[in-house]
Amino acid sequence: MRPEESRQTYLELLQKRLDVRAVLLLPESLFREEAFYLILANHPEGEGTIRRVAVQGQLITEQWMSVWHLEKKAACGLDENLAHLLAKAEVVIDKDGYMKQVRQRLLRPSDSLQKKLVCREYSRLLLFFHEAKEWLQQGLTLDAYRLFVQALHSWARLVVYEMGEHPQASLWSQVKLLDSSVYKLYEELSANGETLEKRIELLVLAIEFAVTSRMKDSVRFLTELMETKEGPWRLQELMSHPAVQSAGIEIPVLIDKMVQRSFVQEVVCPDEGDQEVCFILLG
After folding, report:
1. Per-residue model confidence (pLDDT) at position 116
2. Residue 72 in contact with residue 246, Cβ under 8 Å?
3. Do residues 259 and 266 make contact, with C-beta atoms less than 8 angstroms apart?
4. Could you tell me if 166 and 106 are in contact, meaning their C-beta atoms sit under 8 angstroms apart?
5. I need a labelling partner for 108 at 20 to 30 A (CA). Which of 6, 93, 193, 232 fits?
């Protein structure tokens, strides 16, 4: 039997299954010859497991993912690779137009999600930048360089989210069109003929300016959250808040920076034991 006929038989079986919501044929890979399907289901067996199955003598690769798992990832911001696959894959089964709705949501994040993703990448930019400077002070230039590259990647994703888009797998090609100055910094750090120390020195100045000038807009998600409660917030209270837990925001480093910039004030919370330092939003 020809491969096309085997695949058709395979898809007909999936179409009949009540738990299957959508099936995507993933883009071709140089490392496989058989078809690779991503199956979105209500209650899949072996979440995330990749299997190779034989259908009428033909090999097919399949990976199952729950709709709940996809929705959870979408709510926190899809990683570039998964977003790329969902955008580029051929939809071969789409019950009730589910994948069409997902793709429409992936084109532009909602306002609330955009604020959360901007805050996340800004906090990661701060974290990587802080750690890179510590390595630099210890004279560990190559370790600092690795973290500066990570900081630039967070800055690149921050730029994309600020523009209301989702990062693509070809992130730097995307950023080149959105903010050529950030792209130029990455290019200078990677390929400039200057010494590594000189390249890093210029990057430090650029990031220092970026984290200062972008702060007010970048922390809006956190400031709006803190406005929902009167009185001080404990650090653990912020970190364990349902809106923050799944967001991947680096709360401690973000709060420290907000204190330094007088966005937040440290106060002592009344407690029977040790006097815990808490935080009040200013302005």
Report:
1. 92
2. yes
3. yes
4. yes
5. 93
**CA separation for the pair 260, 20 (Å, rounded):** 51
pLDDT digits (tens, 9 = 90+) for 243-264: 898 788 999 999 999 999 999 9
Beta-bridge partners for 65: 40
| Three-class secondary structure assignment of the chain | CCHHHHHHHHHHHHHHCCCEEEEEECCCCCCCCCEEEEEEECCCCCCCCEEEEEECCEEEEEEEEEHHHHHHHHHHCCCHHHHHHHHHCEEEEEHHHHHHHHHHHHHCCCHHHHHHHHHHHHHHHHHHHHHHHHHHHCCCHHHHHHHHHHHHHHHHHHHHHHCCCCCCCCHHHHHHHHCHHHHHHHHHHHHCCCCHHHHHHHHHHHHHHHHHHCHHHHCHHHHHHHCCCCCCECHHHHHCCHHHHCCCCCHHHHHHHHHHCCCEEEEEECCCCCCEEEEEECC
Contact (CB, 8 A) for 93 and 119: no
Q: Is the pLDDT of residue 148 over 80?
A: yes
Confidence of residue 29 (pLDDT cuts 50, 70, 90): low
CA-based Rg of the chain, rounded to a whole angstrom? Answer: 23
pLDDT surpasses 90 at 273: no
pTM (two decimals): 0.80
Task: Write phi, then psi, for 137 (nearest 5 degrees).
Answer: -65, -25
205's tokens: 């100045």
Confidence label for 45 from pLDDT (cuts 50, 70 and 90): low
